[in-house]
Amino acid sequence: MRKMGLFGGTFDPIHSGHIEMALCLAEALALDSVMLMPTFVPPHKIREQMAPSEHRLAMCRLAAQPHANLTVSDLELTRQGASFTVDTLEALQRLYPDTQWYLFTGADMFCTLRTWYRFADIAHMAVLCTVPREGTDTAALLSYAAALETDGIRCYVHPKPVQTVSSTQIRTLAAADQPLNGLVPEAVEQYIRLHGLYGGGESDCRTRNEQFIAILRTRLGEYRFHHSLCVAEEAARLAEKYGADREKAYTAGLLHDILKDTDGKSQLQILADFGILLSEVEQSSPALWHARTGEVFLRHILGVADEDILQAVRYHTTGRAGMSLLERVLFVADFTSADRTYEDVEEMRRLADLSLEAAMCYGIDYTIRDLLDKGRTVHPDTVAAYNDIVLSEERRANE
Ligand SMILES: [Fe+2]
Ligand SMILES: [Fe+2]
Questions:
Q1: DSSP secondary-structure letter at 183?
Q2: What is the pLDDT of residues 327-381, one digit of tens each?
Q3: Which of 11, 70, 230, 232 could be bridged to 339 by S-S, CB 3.0 to 4.6 A?
Q4: Over the stretch 275-310, which tens digit does the pLDDT of each residue have?
């Protein structure tokens, strides 16, 4: 039987205290995983500076990403309307048969459990767990748990406290554009800044690209970070030369490999979170994943809304038939950026200055040959890109 933790909360924002609690309970109880579930907040309860649910969800995903045993569910958010814990547990039991659930509650909520709607059913479906916070009364938790246990209810109170982190304090600091100093995971802090959540961001005079660069710095190794800056420069240069949008090309270049240094398991989790299935060919080619997952990450987690940029990122490894100008610019820039040193790079650069199509043709040819040499599968989009470019060159020659 699987053992899973359920940790619900408004997570506005999720912070290091939440993550510490999830990880320490997971370890102490030998859980297979812990599901973080941001709760829906009814309109009348929304505070003035509350982050919209999509932001609370995205921050949970960012916080969970480095931890293989943390997952995020949007079950309560998509259900809309008030959710009772008992309804959520019933839904989870249907979705995850053969699972023992462990319900996590904060120390303050634990001692109110008996007042929860259909408490007896909750206690029947889950083991009730909590962790004392520094400075809270552990004895009160233990005696409440002991009373529950005499009624045959299964409980667990962790013996050691976790750090006390206040969401209010985080929101106040964010509003004043003050550093959050580890109160939230770094990726969450960047997200709060990027979206100007909690009233902050007014004095943040960095441009969006500067904010993206700060994010890349924490997600990519030295080599890939340098590569991304070089591709951005090259994409901007090619955009100018061929009449594409220079700004968009620069941003697409910065972001194209954003998940390239993220491990495969986390990448697959991102796809699973958004219900995206990989084809068999894609499953067999982990080198392609970062383009697909990068697009999904940028769209749903960093909130990039520009379709041109998103599609350019998505197709930068495989190409496809009918690529837009920006897609072609990024595809070629990834081959010709200043950091590239492969054998034919000078020929590729020469072609890129002649025409994007000539460089594309060379690049796709190179990619397909390389895959064939290695006995690997060729993505159908790459074949389609190849045919498309050859046919359009033929048409041009016949004109
Ligand atoms: Fe890439
Ligand atoms: Fe790249």
A1: S
A2: 999 999 999 999 999 988 999 999 999 999 999 999 999 999 999 999 999 999 9
A3: 230
A4: 888 999 999 999 999 999 999 999 988 889 999 999
| Ligand whose nearest atom lies closest to the CA of 291 | 1
What's the 130 CA to ligand 2 centre distance in angstroms? 45
Which of the ligands is closest to the CA of residue 228? 2
Instruction: Tell me which ligand sits closest to the C-alpha of residue 313.
Output: 1
Amino acid at 288: L
Q: Residue 305 burial by CB count (10 A; 0-12/13-18/19+): exposed, middle or buried?
A: exposed
Query: What separation in Å is there between the alpha carbon of 71 and the centre of ligand 2?
Result: 28
Report CA(204)–ligand 2 centroid distance (Å): 29
Distance from residue 256's CA to the centre of ligand 2 (Å): 6
User: For residue 339, how many other CB atoms are within 10 A of its CB?
Assistant: 15
Instruction: Decide if 310 contacts 299 (C-beta within 8 A).
Output: yes
Helices 186-194 and 208-219: angle between axes, nearest 10 degrees: 170
**Beta strand ranges found along the chain (DSSP E):** 2-9, 33-38, 70-72, 99-104, 126-130, 155-157
Three-state secondary-structure class, residue 101: strand
What was the pLDDT predicted at 62? Answer: 93
Q: What pTM value is reported for the model?
A: 0.77
- Tell me, what DSSP letter sits at residue 9? E
Please state the φ and ψ torsions of residue 344, each to the nearest 5 degrees. Answer: -95, 15
The amino acid occupying position 394 is E
Is cis: bond before 13, omega within 30 of 0?
yes
Q: What spacing in Å lies between the alpha carbon of 340 and ligand 2's midpoint?
A: 10
381 CA to middle of ligand 1, Å? 15
Q: Which domains does the chain have, with CATH numbers?
A: 2-157 (3.40.50.620), 167-211 (no CATH), 221-398 (1.10.3210.10)
Q: How far is the CA of 331 from the centre of ligand 1 (A)?
A: 9
Closest CA to 39 of 78, 89, 95, 90: 78
Rounded Cα gap, residues 118 and 195, in angstroms: 39
What's the average model confidence in pLDDT over 91-112? 93
Beta-ladder partners of 71: 35
| Token duo for residue 60 | 């949970």
Nearest to 91 by CA among 101, 81, 104: 101
Give 327 Cα–ligand 2 centroid separation in angstroms.
13
